[in-house]
């Protein structure tokens, strides 16, 4: 009988402690249609909108394809590329003209999408490309490879 009473008391204490932990988490953020929450915040998604004291506990994380933008990209100390991201073309600012330099435009999957030459205005036309991230690879290996975002 004493063992049964001791076991009951032990289980009651564990249950009370668990309930205390859940209550402290529940006092955080409850996600509703009008909620404003931050990344990294612990949230509770109610399974029943009428009963907000139960639900799935989680941490809000941001998972998307946002790209970091830079107005210009210095690919080495002598060459700067702009704009990045671009809509139609990119321009190379250099001491020497890159006119007629051959360039491979490679998708992020590694497929060569296009082969072009730098124009006499030191620019590269990308207007026919779909939106995405591309790797610009010069056939002249002395010029570094870099990524460009096409919008």
* Major sheet characteristics: 4 strands, antiparallel
Uncertain residue segments: 16-27
Residues in helices, as a percent range: 10-25%
Q: How many distinct folded domains?
A: 2
As an assembly, this protein is: single chain
Beta strand %: 25-35%
Order of helices and strands: HEEEEEEEEEEE
The CATH top-level class label of the largest domain: Mainly Beta
Span between N and C termini?
Answer: 75 Å
Question: Gyration radius, to the nearest Å?
Answer: 29 Å
> pLDDT average, as an integer?
73
Provide the fold topology.
Layout: H1 2-26, E1 29-30, E2 42-45, E3 56-59, E4 73-76, E5 79-82, E6 89-94, E7 102-107, E8 112-117, E9 123-125, E10 132-138, E11 146-150
Parallel strand pairs: 1-2
Antiparallel strand pairs: 2-3, 4-5, 5-6, 6-9, 7-8, 7-10, 10-11
Account of the protein in words:
With 151 residues, this protein is α+β, with helices and mostly antiparallel strands. It folds into 2 domains: 40 residues, no CATH class; 78 residues, Immunoglobulin-like, CATH 2.60.40. The chain is 17% helix and 34% strand. Strands 4-5-6-9 form a 4-stranded antiparallel beta sheet, with no helix packed on it. The protein has a 4-stranded antiparallel beta sheet with strand order 8-7-10-11, with no helix packed on it. Strand 10 and strand 11 form a beta hairpin. About 8% of the residues have low confidence.
């Amino acid at each position: 009988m004493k063992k049964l009473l001791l076991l009951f008391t032990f289980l009651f204490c564990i249950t009370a402690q668990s309930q205390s932990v859940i209550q402290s988490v529940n006092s955080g953020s409850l996600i509703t249609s009008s909620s404003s929450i931050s990344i990294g915040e612990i949230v509770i998604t109610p399974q029943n909108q009428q009963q907000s004291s139960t639900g799935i506990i989680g941490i809000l994380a941001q998972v998307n394809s946002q790209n970091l933008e830079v107005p210009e990209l210095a690919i080495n100390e002598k060459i700067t590329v702009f704009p990045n991201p671009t809509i139609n073309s990119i321009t190379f600012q250099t001491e020497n003209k890159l006119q007629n330099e051959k360039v491979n435009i490679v998708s992020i999957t590694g497929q060569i999408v296009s082969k072009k030459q730098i124009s006499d205005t030191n620019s590269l036309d990308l207007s026919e490309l779909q939106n995405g991230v591309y790797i610009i690879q010069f056939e002249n290996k002395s010029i570094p490879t870099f990524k460009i975002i096409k919008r």
